[in-house]
Task: inverse folding
């Protein structure tokens, strides 16, 4: 008698919840989603503004509503969603995988989908020198404080970073009673889109200091000021480090999977398979950080691959990270497409090479750092899913 | 904490609640005088114990193999090692038996290794073993290229540097010691049989005997007590703590060959499962300059890249900077004066964590020698205190269930609530980090700050 296959998904954010729903809808599969947080939903839960759901639900909604919808949909489809459950290990084996929780519970799974998400690099990880006063946050901590706990965070904030999330931090700070007095980016320009810039920094006349970075934090007990690399001192009582995403890769590292150097997430193939048979990785663990709806599409995409694995139990011999050439930082798969990041503003065409030969060349455009850049092309789509070695991405004139 | 202007007359007041002062207060609290419990008070300028020099220690449980033979430091580190090794498991202070390997990076350093082994033997430590470069690389496969030789020190271990003063202070309090925080001593008034310590807030603390464990401010108190002889020049040490995923990169602490002024930059595992790189050693004038510096951090990364190249590719979890109370002498400055009823434990640097319990013994002996009637309390009346050990090698509370709030360090809500209550509660995030590890992990509050703020009730906007 063959039992119903069991898929364990680690992380109940947009990617994990969408994968769970799709897997349940697609066939007779038991699906368990585990999340370490007290409530499922992931980062949108505390991102209390519009901007969610466009690509996957085809409607625009706020983060908390989006999170609620995804949880409800997964549960209605029959997935078991368990919050406050920390996974500390996934033990590979010849047969089924074993997912181990913090309390020693062992869940046997025919497939494991890692969807543990990403976090912003905090001050320490960026090696910002100076005192260690209170008043230093990340966007994530500010969002938790203001959206979920309705706390005040300070009065005058300097936002470090000028990408989408940096501008959204202005809203979150405002909910916490804090005005933003400056934004800082080492890049020559901000990296967001005009409507978001206008709705946040523009309307509030927040100056964006470009071409400079934060050098030192001043203040013994509470932040008193920041000093920039050009010597400018900005008085403030709050500093928010935004963006600069790093995947929550502890589980990946425990299992010994190789990382993609640029993303620091696990290397996957287009079907979101890692190098370990039965282990998939999706969402911002793999591509830090794409928008929530693209993570959700990743969840839909992986469901097909998981079903294929459950049916044929075939796994690629190897999974190859995709090479990139500067100024590109990384290239990886998201929803079946090649997604790329650049470290610098550059105008040119993204070109995908296969074993050194051009495969696809995109149109000429300005490539903006910290923004999703997707390369599409029929030749890329025609490549077999298995064992795509020798892929590289570069910028050509 | 009392707001009354006057205190009772204590038998002994220990000034400075760093690891040394806490150890002294603990030991004294386990004594009687004239048939009654000794009345002991422990004063500190900070809001918490262990919040000065002690908070940025390299967390090594030193054998003392590299001390200068014949010095007080050599004797007290060796004795303190034995005392703390025995005490730690009973008090819930995590110790991990890693050992260390001292690595030579040029021919001169390699040639000096036998002399270092001989020095260790002169210090009574005979288990150090000189090995060749190939063996060093076998022992620590991730060691950078270019090692020329090494010496294995199998008993140089690692310890929880924050639990140590906390355990001492908590046991002292459980045995009757009064802990007076935010009591910065600004003046000393001496009378024939009572000394009065005047604090910044105008409180007056009376005592028969004074023990100076004031660390960075030890020379200031020493002068206020009417003595001279050493001047503190702070030596800043910056430390970089790397992500726990780096822990498999090394088995044991990797020590550099020592120089005249410092023990140099080491790479050490921590009992919490991280890897630490540091410290720097900058002699500075400002006794409050506990910030990290661009140059210091960059210098550490350069050194780290040579010692353990893969380490610097890992994420940094935390950066600390602390000030060691260095002075013009290399040895501890310990003295006693019968007329002033005063014992000074001056210029105790990074080895003070290991030596703390031996320094406490030394202080008790010196107090007895200058006229304090001191008898060990009846062991049946001694109250033991056991903390929840935070070592990653042991069992953590989350493994038995409970809601994890800090995911990076896996700290439960119950642990956080417990740390904010009791006789010596955490009153700020730093105190909570030292007691529980909450907020001390790789995300530095990205996921849990709001939850911690809700549990503790602490404001985040001030």
Result:
């Amino acid at each position: 008698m063959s039992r119903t296959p069991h898929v364990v998904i680690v992380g109940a954010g947009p990617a994990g919840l969408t994968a769970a729903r799709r897997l349940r809808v697609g066939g007779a599969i038991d699906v368990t989603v585990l999340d370490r947080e007290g409530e499922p939903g992931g980062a949108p839960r505390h991102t209390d503004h519009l901007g969610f759901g466009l690509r996957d639900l085809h409607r625009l909604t706020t983060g908390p509503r989006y999170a609620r919808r995804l949880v409800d949909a997964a549960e209605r489809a029959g997935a078991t969603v368990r919050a406050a459950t920390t996974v500390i290990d996934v033990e590979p084996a010849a047969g089924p995988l074993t997912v181990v929780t913090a309390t020693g519970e062992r869940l046997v799974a025919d497939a494991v989908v890692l969807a543990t998400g990403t976090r912003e690099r905090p001050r320490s990880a960026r090696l910002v020198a100076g005192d260690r006063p209170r008043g230093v946050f990340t966007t994530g901590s500010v969002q938790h404080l203001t959206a979920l706990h309705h706390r005040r965070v300070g009065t005058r904030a300097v936002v470090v970073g000028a990408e989408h999330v940096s501008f959204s931090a202005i809203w979150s700070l405002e909910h916490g009673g804090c005005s933003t007095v400056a934004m800082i980016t080492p890049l020559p320009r901000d990296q967001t889109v005009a409507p978001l810039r206008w709705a946040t920094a523009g309307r509030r006349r927040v100056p964006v200091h470009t071409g400079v970075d934060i050098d030192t934090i001043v203040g013994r007990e509470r932040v008193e000021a920041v000093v920039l690399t050009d010597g400018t001192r900005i008085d403030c009582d709050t500093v928010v480090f935004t963006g600069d995403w790093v995947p929550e890769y502890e589980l990946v590292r425990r299992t010994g999977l190789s990382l993609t150097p640029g993303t620091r997430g696990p290397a996957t193939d287009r079907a979101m398979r890692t190098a370990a048979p039965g282990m998939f990785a999706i969402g911002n663990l793999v591509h830090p950080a794409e928008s929530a709806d693209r993570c959700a599409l990743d969840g839909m995409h992986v469901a097909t691959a998981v079903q294929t694995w459950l049916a044929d139990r075939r796994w690629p011999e190897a999974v190859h990270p995709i090479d990139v050439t500067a100024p590109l930082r990384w290239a990886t798969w998201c929803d079946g497409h090649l997604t790329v990041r650049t470290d610098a503003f550059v105008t040119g065409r993204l070109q995908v090479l296969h074993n050194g030969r051009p495969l696809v060349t995109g149109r000429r455009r300005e490539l903006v750092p910290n923004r999703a850049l997707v390369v599409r092309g029929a030749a890329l789509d025609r490549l077999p899913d298995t064992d795509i070695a020798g892929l590289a991405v570069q910028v050509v004139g | 904490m009392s707001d009354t202007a006057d205190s009772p007359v204590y038998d002994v007041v220990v000034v400075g609640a760093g690891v040394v002062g806490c150890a002294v207060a603990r030991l004294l609290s386990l004594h009687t005088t004239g048939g009654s419990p000794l009345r002991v008070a422990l004063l500190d300028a900070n809001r918490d114990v262990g919040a000065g020099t002690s908070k940025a220690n390299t967390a090594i449980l030193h054998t003392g193999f590299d001390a200068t033979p014949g010095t007080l430091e050599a004797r007290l580190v060796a004795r303190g090692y034995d005392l703390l090794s025995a005490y730690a498991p009973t008090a819930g202070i995590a110790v991990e038996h890693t050992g260390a390997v001292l690595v030579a990076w040029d021919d001169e350093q390699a040639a000096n290794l036998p002399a270092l082994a001989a020095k260790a033997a002169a210090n009574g430590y005979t288990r150090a073993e000189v090995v060749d470069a190939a063996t060093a690389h076998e022992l620590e496969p991730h060691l950078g290229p270019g090692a020329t030789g090494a010496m294995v020190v199998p008993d140089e271990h690692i310890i929880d540097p924050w639990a140590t003063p906390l355990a001492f202070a908590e046991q002292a309090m459980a045995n009757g010691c009064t802990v007076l925080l935010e009591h910065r001593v600004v003046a000393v008034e001496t009378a024939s049989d009572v000394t009065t310590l005047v604090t910044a807030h105008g409180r007056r603390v009376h005592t028969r005997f004074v023990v100076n464990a004031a660390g960075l401010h030890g020379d200031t108190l020493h002068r206020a007590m009417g003595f001279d002889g050493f001047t503190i020049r702070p030596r800043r040490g910056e430390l970089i703590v790397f992500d726990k995923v780096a822990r498999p990169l090394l088995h044991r602490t990797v020590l550099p060959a020592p120089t005249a002024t410092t023990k140099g930059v080491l790479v050490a595992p921590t009992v919490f499962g991280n890897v630490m790189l540091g410290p720097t050693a900058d002699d500075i004038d400002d006794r409050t300059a506990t910030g990290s510096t661009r140059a210091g951090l960059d210098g550490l990364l350069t050194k780290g890249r040579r010692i353990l190249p893969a380490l610097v590719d890992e994420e940094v979890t935390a950066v600390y900077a602390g000030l060691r109370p260095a002075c013009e002498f290399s040895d501890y400055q310990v003295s006693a004066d019968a007329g002033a009823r005063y014992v000074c434990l001056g210029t105790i640097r990074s080895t003070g964590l290991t030596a703390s319990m031996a320094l406490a013994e030394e202080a008790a002996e010196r107090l007895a020698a200058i006229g304090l009637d001191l008898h060990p309390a009846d062991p049946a009346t001694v109250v033991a205190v056991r903390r929840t050990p935070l070592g990653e090698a042991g069992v953590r509370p989350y493994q038995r269930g409970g809601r994890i709030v800090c995911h990076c360090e896996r700290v439960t809500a119950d642990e956080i609530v417990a740390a904010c209550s009791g006789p010596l509660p955490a009153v700020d995030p730093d105190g909570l980090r030292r007691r529980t590890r909450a907020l001390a992990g790789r995300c530095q509050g990205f996921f849990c700050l709001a939850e911690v703020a809700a549990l503790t009730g602490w404001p985040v906007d001030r």
